[in-house]
Specification:
With about 100 residues, the protein is an all-alpha fold. The protein has helices at about 1-30, 40-60. The protein is flat, with a radius of gyration of 25 Å.
């Protein structure tokens, strides 16, 4: 299912990009004939809906099985915390910001 799902996702992305390109071409054509753009044609809207549905389906099926994040779960034995939490160091982006001098 992995390769088929990936190809369905690529096809959905190609449909979305083609619908965007077709919409830009349609707006350009409307500018040439000096008409107002109200909405894209129905075939572009259907292409957008189909591409979106394929991308959503791929996003929900391709990643696979969700794992538990609970540390004491039977499914997830790799997660463990040290017994002494006093000396744990967390690296984060907060050290980039300077401290306020009072």
């Amino acid at each position: 299912m992995g390769m088929v799902g990936f190809l369905v996702g690529v096809f959905g992305g190609l449909l979305l990009s083609h619908a965007a390109y077709a919409t830009v071409q349609y707006r350009g054509m409307l500018m040439i004939v000096e008409e107002e753009f109200s909405r894209p044609p129905m075939n572009i809207v259907m292409e957008l809906v189909l591409g979106l549905a394929l991308c959503i389906w791929t996003a929900l099926t391709v990643p696979g099985k969700f794992l538990s994040i609970l540390p004491h779960s039977d499914e997830n034995r790799l997660v463990s915390l040290p017994a002494n939490l006093d000396f744990m160091i967390f690296n984060h982006r907060g050290k980039v910001f300077p401290l306020k001098q009072t």
